[in-house]
Design goal:
This protein has 15 helices and 19 strands. With about 475 residues, the chain is an alpha/beta fold. It folds into 2 domains: about 375 residues, ANL, N-terminal domain (Rossmann fold, 3-Layer(aba) Sandwich); about 100 residues, 2-Layer Sandwich (GMP Synthetase, Chain A, domain 3), CATH 3.30.300.30. Strands 4-3-5-6-7-8-9-13-12-11-10 form an 11-stranded mixed β-sheet. The protein has a 4-stranded mixed β-sheet with strand order 18-17-16-19. Helix 1 runs antiparallel to helix 10, helix 2 packs across helix 8 and helix 12 packs across helix 13. The chain is globular, with a radius of gyration of 23 Å.
Length: about 475
């Protein structure tokens, strides 16, 4: 119903959040030429550059001198490439010096009693890597990120606020009593989300989720963590439970591998749209109706794909993803190595939108197993091998963990109702296959367990490497 949308933006205009204005900018960008869109983005990058260079001790030392833009208003690659690449370690070590406080008094108030300027909040990353980090967000970034999330919804065909949706969601920040701002609570209510908890995905909980999905025929969209959506789909298929056809499924907060997508579309009866985002960088990219790649939200973020030394790789090549926030005036993430890998598409999307497209998302750096003799096993390998090839129905879920390069641990949760014989033969098959794949340089510890707790972000992680 459109009146929810009208009320949503009217409330944000009344509160002066800036969300409505940002939303209009994102809609207008879809009809711009690539040149116009990228010049606007580069002008925002130059503003971030100057603010950091003048207002933060860290970047004052590390940003090179000289103008960032050329005579045509486009980014100068040579100057940009000389800027530092940052990561979580930098934020932990240089936190205060990376913040662009509006005044010396504001900086002193933060250092003495952690008092924030009006409209600023402390945010934490989800902790999927095992290393959560704090950072600051100002009101402007909150507005732009809120609008970016709405734009991602629109690309998926779920026009904001006009229909109800089911969301299987929730990290530790959502369940431990962390105070949620009034505007966030009001936005959630107006966006008509029906929240189903993602923690404790046991049989009773999953049966309840499927019953709710089937009962709430007024909610044509299902959204959730990819791991949770996949786990629920596998449960439904294994238990012989039918799920009413959905108009769309929005998958986020994890890598959507092809076997996962195929099963989810078969069980949920509708197309799966991949979304890329994080607590760190916000809503970053989303598939459009053609689902050929993920459109980057250019007006809010500058996305790069680089090699290990921070040099941009050619479009079509794999590399690490860097994010630069364009509207977080307080503490913008700048050339921030978020821990994901991807490939930028050298070709524009046939849909006609001018945004660059992430052709592939290859998962987090921490979702790969690397052996001493140089072998690299991606999470897709384990998802396909353990979830499909070696799973005759006995395995519910698994997790592969690597804390040392010469040691890999695998926890396997058997499906309820599977026989001891199925479990033992399944375990032997897993050990035999993985000992060969990992090679003689790795000691494998594979065992059956009763449960695998979720990560602090609420997601189930199939592969976790701390190397």
């Amino acid at each position: 119903m459109r009146y929810h949308e009208l009320i949503f933006f009217a409330v944000h205009r009344l509160l002066g959040t800036g969300t409505a204005q940002a939303w209009r900018t994102l809609l207008a960008a879809e009809d711009q030429s690539p040149g116009t869109l990228f010049r606007s983005r580069d002008a925002a990058l130059a503003a971030v550059w100057e603010r950091l260079r003048t207002a933060t001790p860290f970047y004052r030392e590390w940003l090179p001198p000289g103008p960032l833009l050329d005579g045509s208003g486009r980014l100068r690659p040579d100057v940009w490439a000389a800027a530092p690449v940052t990561d979580r370690r930098d934020i932990r070590t240089h936190f205060d010096d990376m913040v662009a406080f509006p005044s010396a008094d504001a900086r002193r108030a933060w250092r003495e009693r952690r008092a924030l300027p009006a409209g600023w909040t402390v945010q934490k990353s989800g902790g999927s890597t095992g290393q959560p980090v704090e950072y600051l967000q100002d009101r402007t970034w909150q507005a732009w990120n809120r609008a970016a999330a709405l734009w991602c919804d629109k690309l998926s065909g779920a026009w904001p606020c006009r229909e109800k949706r089911l969301k299987i969601w929730g990290g530790t920040q959502e369940i431990r009593g962390v105070k949620v701002p009034l505007t966030t609570r009001l936005s959630s209510w107006l966006q008509r989300g029906i929240i189903l908890p993602s923690f404790r995905m046991d049989e009773a909980t999953m049966r309840g989720h499927i019953e709710t999905i089937n009962r709430r025929t007024d909610a044509p969209t299902l959204e959730g963590y990819v791991s949770t959506l996949y786990t629920l789909a596998r449960f439904a298929r294994g238990a012989g439970l039918s799920v009413r056809p959905l108009q769309r499924v929005i998958s986020s907060a994890g890598t959507l591998h092809a076997p996962m997508k195929e099963l989810m579309e078969a069980v949920y009866g509708g197309p799966v749209f991949d979304r890329y985002g994080s607590r760190d960088g916000g809503a970053t990219a989303n598939q459009c109706e053609l689902r050929r790649g993920l459109h980057v939200c250019e007006p809010t973020l500058y996305v790069e794909v680089v090699d290990k030394k921070g040099r941009q790789v050619p479009d079509g090549s794999e590399g690490d993803i860097l994010l630069t926030q364009l509207h977080n005036h307080g503490m913008p993430l700048f050339r921030y190595r978020i821990g994901d890998r991807g490939v930028m598409d050298p070709e524009p999307c046939p849909c006609g939108r001018p945004h660059r497209v992430l052709k592939k998302l290859l998962g987090r750096v921490t979702e790969r197993i690397c052996t001493p003799d140089g072998r690299i096993l991606d999470s897709l390998y384990f998802v396909h091998l353990l979830g499909v090839v070696l799973n005759s129905g006995w395995l519910d879920r698994f997790q592969v963990v690597q804390d040392k390069q010469d040691e890999v641990r695998i926890a396997l949760v058997p499906r309820e109702g599977s026989s001891p014989g199925e479990r033992e033969s399944g375990l032997r098959a897993v050990i035999a296959e993985l000992e060969e794949s990992l090679g003689p340089s790795v000691r494998l510890d594979a065992r059956l367990v009763g449960d695998i707790p979720p990560s602090p972000s609420g997601k189930h992680l199939y592969v976790v490497s701390s190397l």
